[in-house]
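Entries read chain and fold; for instance:
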Amino acid sequence: MTGTVLAALAAQAAPFLACALVLIFLRGRPRAAAGAAIAALTVSFAATALLVWQVAVPNVACGTPPGPCVTQALWLPVQGGAGLAFGVILDPLSATMALVVAVITLAVMVYSTGYMHGDPGFGRYFGFLAFFGWAMLGLVLASNLLQLLVFWELVGLASFLLIGFWFERAAPAAAARKAFIMTRVGDVGFLLGVLLLIRALGVATIPDVIAAATGPAPAFRVPLVAFLLLMGVIGKSAQGPLFTWLPDAMEGPTPVSALLHSATMVAAGVFLVARLHGLFAAAPAVMHGLLLLALVTALASATMAMVANDIKRVLAYSSISQLSYMLMGLAAGSVAAGFFHLTTHAGFKALLFLASGIFIHHAHSNDMREIAEHEPLSQKAGVIGLVAGSLALAGVIPFAGYFSKEAVLGAMGEHVGGVVLALAYFGAGLTAYYTFRMVFLTLRGAAAQAHRRTDAPTQPGPAAHEEHFSKAAHAAMAWPVLVLAALTLVLGYLGGFFAVRLSPALPHEGPFHVGTGAVVALALVAAGIALAWYEFGRAGALRLGFAERVPVLKSFFGDNWYLDRLYNATVVRWTVALSRAAKWNDHTVLDGASDVVAQGTVWGGRILAMGQNGFVQAYVAVAISVVAALGIWLMRTGGQP
């Protein structure tokens, strides 16, 4: 067993052991629980950094033609079947994604020691974070599709547990159920696709799946399998009709939002498309459909962000939109562009959520207008994080988001054109607009607004909260934000690194190559920022956006394009009706039939019991009568039947 394989196993084992240790022994010891979880993710960070150094940097490949290195063992043999194998797959894609997961999870854990300070479920929270780290790393490094499916579902379980962490409140509990159910809808298709591949290929090791899909005579129906797997991607990465769970998932703690629902967990679907890109590319109709679905989702979620006042919901809608851009890059044929945007987005979106958490903790409100009334500029780390992350999200040079988004748009320009490309550029302008609407609403105060909800733990008001909140807790929240802010200036230069390793056959320009597309994108970004400043940032601005001035648009955009209403009027209503019918059948028909049998038995017993009256004379009389009747019958029939 090589050192890289041991590093991959150590990266997964450390958070699993920490999860078991915390949830079994340390739930009542907050500092020990946090220390164990952070130590485990530090091990994972070191191990995944080693993987990047030994696998991704030298661009290690195995086999002919060159491909990922797979090490796995048959764990559960099945007679006449494929059996269950577990192993690791190592290549630049898996090694880099594992490092992204480890870095973001570690940053969120350190931040959470401050943000969750004083929460009664502190130990349980860190156990769940370690559980997520183990599940996500297991997914990224899985060598075959059955193993990947197992960890895919464990990631969904971790999401459920963390969204509903404050399960005693109605809203987080409902959000957790909604997220779990909606992602399971997509996972039904994903499961069927995996089962078809296992039936055709046995263990379904990932390189074997791609080789079979791209071979001259595929052993399975590639378009059907690609479509079924894509259903899981749509659910996990909140695309198309299954996106409405993600904004509601913001009911969980803000660090959870940073970790699961922007940086890593929702990116699992994007990673799957990159991991199996050869299979998806062999189904061009499916990829074209994915491109169009992602485009519509990007534009729709951008319009929703334009009217939202909850800072976390704005970031949630922007996550949906940016996930769509990643998928558009992959659908356009560039693994490098899609994964590059995934990497930069993990950094600057985690930064934005953690920065917003500082303001939420300070103002005890998620409403940007309310935050602006509580001296937001006094929160220096929050301001730095919000501004740096917003510049990256909007796509302003030289921040990371500019380079990765240009890579996506450039890949689209090579393979698609016309209306689709124009709408993708238009979406980039909308991104800049709603991002700086968020900045100006948060940092520039106006007349006080009604207090809304908060997810900050437990203190009765800002003054009491500040007295309780220690300088160490402030520092624990500030340092991850500042580190991630610095990363937004560095990650953008990884484009060439990914291009050479993930899409070597595609042309690649340097990071500062400015073509027509870049000029158009920057012009649209500048226009979006200028419009946001005019409506929200300048002195005397009405602080009301152009969409918010039209009541019909404000209602339509603010209510998720009425999708939840549609689901409630159709799917939910039909499901409730079916459930009630099933309940009536169970209680009335099935229980009624069994009750009739039971009552018949009871009455039969009572009738028989009437003969058991305790009088010996009656028993003798009955016996004589029976014997006499039997004798008469024998005499008359002669004993013949």
Observations:
- The mean pLDDT is 89.
- The longest strand covers residues 69-76.
